[in-house]
Design goal:
This protein is α/β, with parallel strands linked by helices and about 600 residues long. The strands form 4 sheets. The chain has an 8-stranded mixed barrel with strand order 13-14-16-17-18-19-20-21, surrounded by 4 helices. Bound molecules: ligand C2E and magnesium ion (MG) (2 copies).
Length: about 600
């Protein structure tokens, strides 16, 4: 009989309805259908079966032997833009784009021969474009004779699109459009398990934008987002396969490179970091951004995706601890970092109590006459076992733990005390410069504290200078209030490491700053690099234009001195004059009044 046909119809139906996720509406309908099904169990005629499907949420149509539409359960408006009345009686062919005619005809023939078919077919929408439909066909039989074909369809275009959307949301970062963590982990996993080409390694890196929080805090989140977008765009320039780069969260990006060795991995990462040489532009303000990168290579047996990423992250943390804007490769010794950090912080507290810190002083010279015009106080740690430890090895840890505030207070007090003592001993009265760290600058009572220390040590405010960095001035309004209060005390402010920070010249006009210290990275290369020569010359000219003094850091050679003199730089500091020296040596230099080498130059 036609039992198998009925069965065939049901199966065709189920196939297509199975595609539909059971939404609440279709679930309700499904239950009703099941009830009706059992009620109508005795009626097994295809036509009756179709009648029971009349109100189904899916669409069916019957095509007669002539190839014309004979019946359908609803207007296929959503998918085809046509009504039932417009279609009944019309040849199915009218709805077929040329490209799918042959396929449709074959389906039709096969079904008429008793087969149940399933296919993805393109059908013409009333507006002329083709839509993708998933169709199931089944022969329609009456009294043992096939009389036509029943087609069940579902518009999968929409489904395809929503799947794409879901996939996108699951695997891509909404803001930058880059793959996200999940995508990257899958990809890394596949690359590792699929075997990396002979003789090559996978380098996985973790990149973090330095002081990104400051951008958000100073310019607002929207601006921060725009910066991230621009960063993502620059990073993608370093990848042939865009899927090898992903955004983790916030200001963190990860990626992978296929390399031959550590050297090549380093070269790729250096290229990545060079993308940050040029400033970004945010609402007309140029912003200099640096990044820190940690990377790991799949050299050990247990290096799965998770492990590699964790190693790269550990290496990144090491870079951050050592002062940012750098990269490093993971080595197993880094694993002790957490412990090391804890020990270090504990040691720092003890060192302060046991008076293991001391100040070195580096003279600053006037470039016109070679006279000592100032001293910069630079902290050292006399460690019982490790000897004299330079600040780069403990300042970052002290900053992280907040310990820098107590340490900074000590430096300030000691520098003021020493300077006053020198003056009391009859040595020339010149200002001492003290470096302020970010945390100190953020303290609410900074001004009160500085005033109290000056009072306590008896140092006249004009003999104290505070060195701030550009990043501290990003929140211009706050910086303005603080600096105004500080300068009202009578102390001077200079901007340290100028040229490496986030800032632009525009804020300098507004802030009560007395001098700029050109970062030594520019000074270092003035002999070789015409760019650096131009930058240094421009900084000097610009500063003078704003009535600011300029001091060049890290001056080591006579050529550098001559260049700086030629461009009328005011002062210099560096090994050419003197390295930082202990206080007794500084006292001797002060007594002599000027530097040997500089004296000869200026005479
Ligand atoms: P900075 O304030 O830019 O200090 C200048 C650094 O450059 C000093 O390193 C100095 O030794 C070095 N230097 C001076 N002349 C030359 C030169 O001709 N060539 C080269 N290659 N280097 C030169 P130092 O003393 O190791 O200090 C490093 C940084 O540590 C300082 O950079 C400053 O940011 C920070 N620091 C030092 N003392 C303190 C402190 O008391 N408090 C805070 N918050 N930071 C400090
Ligand atoms: Mg300094
Ligand atoms: Mg400096």
């Amino acid at each position: 009989m036609n039992g198998w046909h009925t069965d065939s119809l049901w199966r065709a139906w189920s196939a297509v309805s199975g595609v539909l996720a059971l939404s609440t509406a279709s679930l309700g309908w499904f239950l009703a259908r099941e009830r009706r099904k059992s009620r109508d169990a005795k009626r097994s005629h295809d036509a009756e079966l179709l009648a029971s499907l009349e109100d189904s949420p899916l669409f069916f149509a019957v095509i007669g032997l002539t190839g014309r539409f004979e019946r359908m359960n609803r207007d296929p408006l959503a998918s085809l833009g046509r009504t039932k009345d417009q279609l009944i009686g019309r040849p199915m062919e009218d709805l077929l784009p040329a490209a799918s005619r042959e396929q449709a005809l074959q389906l039709f023939r096969k079904t008429l021969a008793g087969e149940r078919c399933s296919a993805e077919l393109q059908i013409l929408h009333a507006s002329g474009h083709a839509v993708d439909l998933q169709i199931e066909t089944a022969p329609l039989a009456r009294a043992g004779r096939v009389e036509g074909v029943v087609i069940f369809t579902q518009d999968i275009g929409e489904r395809k699109r929503s799947l794409e959307r879901i996939r996108y949301m699951a695997y891509y970062d909404d803001m930058t459009g880059l793959p996200n963590r999940r995508f990257f982990m899958n990809r890394l996993h596949k690359r590792l398990s699929g075997g990396v080409a002979e003789g090559t390694l996978l380098a996985v890196f973790y990149l973090d934008v330095d002081r990104f929080k400051l951008v958000n805090a100073s310019y607002g989140r929207d601006t921060g987002d725009i910066l991230l977008l621009q960063i993502a765009e620059r990073l993608t320039r370093c990848f042939d396969v865009q899927e090898d780069l992903a955004r983790m969260e916030g200001d963190e990006f990860v990626g992978l490179f296929e390399v031959r060795d550590t050297g090549e991995a380093s070269a790729r990462i250096e290229a990545l970091m060079r993308q940050f040489d040029e400033p970004f532009e945010l609402g007309g303000i140029p912003l200099h951004v640096t990044v820190s990168v940690g990377f790991a290579l799949n050299v050990e047996a247990g290096d799965d995706a998770g492990t590699l990423l964790k190693k790269a992250d550990t290496a990144l943390h090491r870079v951050k601890e050592n002062g940012r804007n750098d990269y490093t490769r993971y080595v197993p010794e880094f694993e002790n970092t957490a412990l090391h950090k804890l020990t270090l912080q504990h040691e720092l507290i003890e060192a302060l109590q046991q008076e293991q810190f001391l100040l070195y002083y580096q003279p600053q010279y006037g470039l016109s006459d070679g006279r000592i015009v100032g001293l910069e106080a630079l902290i050292r740690w006399r460690h019982p076992e490790r000897g004299l430890v330079p600040p780069a090895q403990f300042i970052p840890a002290a900053e992280d733990s907040g310990m820098i505030v107590a340490l900074g207070d000590w430096v300030l007090r000691e520098a003021c005390r020493q300077n006053r003592a020198w003056q009391d001993a009859g040595l020339p009265a010149i200002p001492v410069s003290v470096n302020l760290s970010f945390r100190q600058f953020a303290q609410l009572d900074l001004v009160g504290k500085v005033a109290a220390i000056l009072e306590e040590t008896g140092l006249d405010a004009r003999y104290l200078k505070l060195e701030i960095t550009e990043s501290m001035t990003m929140d211009v309004e706050r910086a303005l209030a603080y600096l105004k209060a500080l300068t009202a005390l009578g102390i001077g402010i200079s901007v340290d490491d100028f040229g490496t920070g986030y800032s632009s010249f525009h804020y300098l006009k507004r802030l009560p700053i007395g001098s700029l210290k050109i970062d030594r990275s520019f000074v270092r290369d003035i002999q070789q690099d015409p760019n650096d020569r131009a930058i240094v010359a421009a900084i000097i000219a610009m500063a003078h234009n704003l009535q600011l003094q300029v001091i060049a850091e890290g001056v080591e050679t006579e050529e550098q001195v001559r260049f700086l003199q030629h461009h009328r730089c005011d002062e210099m500091q560096g090994y050419y004059g003197s390295p930082p020296v202990p206080s007794d040596e500084a006292e001797r230099l002060l007594a002599s009044g000027s530097g040997e080498s500089l004296r000869s130059l200026s005479s």
